[in-house]
Design a protein that fits this description.
The protein is built from 17 helices and no strands. By secondary structure, it is mainly α. It folds into 3 domains: about 240 residues, Rhopdopsin 7-helix transmembrane proteins, CATH 1.20.1070; about 70 residues, no CATH class; about 60 residues, Arc Repressor Mutant, subunit A (Orthogonal Bundle), CATH 1.10.10.
Length: about 375
């Protein structure tokens, strides 16, 4: 236990130091750095509690100070995910409500634990009677709701973000936060298991408190390694690129507007002719802003028409053309000297992984399977 806690402290402090010493930091970088400091504080206070127990409680002031910090994990994670996924993210006073559970728990613990004489606190921890208090049971449920709830909320924000960027970009592999989606999905599963064990233990003894703490700390140490490794490499899309449309409004607009007039019908015909004749999809950096400039319309108008009249987002609309172009190239003997990925790059793809995934989704077979089919004819 002691070894895991020390590792966790230095991991979190090291990652926070790496972030705060970077020359160019975005708001999301600052939030991630604070996230690691919160974890470092949590591990440090947990270490002091552990040190107290094995050394005769020399510092009773620090007893039961670590658990409430867990209620800050969820809000810190939420702010980080929000800063990465919200195009117009700004801190608002209403966001302070995220810290209300932590504040209420601190008040409850002050009256039931912190204000007690040192001898009473030590006895409460030694004989385990603290788990009989109502405040402890409320605390366990609050942590379960906070850790699991914020992970689910964060995952929902990432999924919505992925939907938004598909209205603007034709390539999303490096900006779709797939690593964060995996991390949050894994956190939901692990938090769900840990919290279920803690809640069941309130009624039926499942495992020793030390064993449950050990598993929780191991998960926390692995969690911040994963978040730190990818978080340090993750830039903020909205801070690094100018996106000439409100992606949030575009998503909402597509849900409600389904009717298009004659003028829109003519423009859709013009759009399809432009795609066929000019082949703008061969540009691997194509986004909706560039295409709208070619067509002399606003990105919002083009996005709405693609979604409402063609029932696709921009990502699917463009990549379907690239897949069809690839199919034609496979049938052309003059391209036989190129590899499949070489053909894919010529057709506008800029990533092997994206090409394989998109092609399989549209064609129903892998690129190599398709090439083999047309070669045998």
């Amino acid at each position: 236990m002691e070894f895991i806690l020390i590792i966790g402290i230095f991991e979190a402090l090291f990652l926070a130091g790496l972030i705060f010493t970077q020359k160019k930091k975005s708001l999301s970088d600052h939030i991630l750095g604070i996230f690691f400091l919160v974890y470092a504080l949590n591990f440090a206070l947990s270490y002091l509690e552990f040190y107290n127990r094995i050394n005769g409680f020399p510092y009773p002031f620090f007893l039961v100070t670590a658990p409430p910090i867990i209620l800050l994990h969820g809000p810190a994670l939420w702010f980080y995910v929000k800063s990465l996924t919200d195009q117009n993210f700004r801190f608002r006073s209403g966001y302070l409500l995220h810290f209300l559970p932590f504040a209420l728990m601190m008040v409850g613990l002050f009256f039931h634990v912190y204000s007690l004489p040192a001898e009473a606190k030590i006895k409460m921890v030694q004989d385990g009677s603290i788990t009989d208090h109502l405040v402890y049971k409320i605390f366990v449920v609050a942590i379960a709701l906070s850790t699991t709830g914020y992970s689910i909320w964060g995952l929902a924000m990432v999924l919505r973000y992925n939907k938004k960027i598909k209205t603007y970009f034709s390539h999303i592999e490096k900006i779709d936060l797939s690593w964060l989606k995996i991390l949050l999905a894994g956190a939901i599963i692990v938090y769900g298991i840990i919290n279920t064990v803690y809640i069941i233990d309130l009624f039926i003894p499942v495992a020793s408190f030390g064993a449950m703490q050990f598993f929780s700390f191991v998960f926390g140490a692995v969690y911040i390694i994963f978040l730190g490794f990818f978080g340090l490499q993750q830039g903020n899309l909205f801070a690094s690129q100018k996106i000439n449309m409100n992606l949030e409004e575009a998503v909402e607009q597509h849900k409600t507007e389904r009717n298009a007039g004659g003028k829109d019908e003519k423009f859709v015909h013009f759009l399809l002719e432009h795609m066929k004749e000019e082949k703008p999809y061969l540009n691997s950096d194509l986004n909706i802003s560039k295409l709208s400039r070619e067509l002399d319309v606003t990105p919002e108008y083009l996005s709405k028409l693609i979604n409402t009249k063609l029932n696709k987002n921009f990502f699917d609309f463009v990549n379907r053309y690239r897949v069809n172009e690839f199919k034609e190239c496979c049938k052309n003997s003059s391209h036989q000297n190129l590899s499949l990925i070489g053909l894919a790059y010529n057709c506008g793809f800029n990533s092997k992984a994206t090409f394989n995934r998109v092609f399989k989704n549209i064609a129903g077979v892998t690129p190599s399977e398709y090439y083999k089919q047309v070669s045998e004819k």
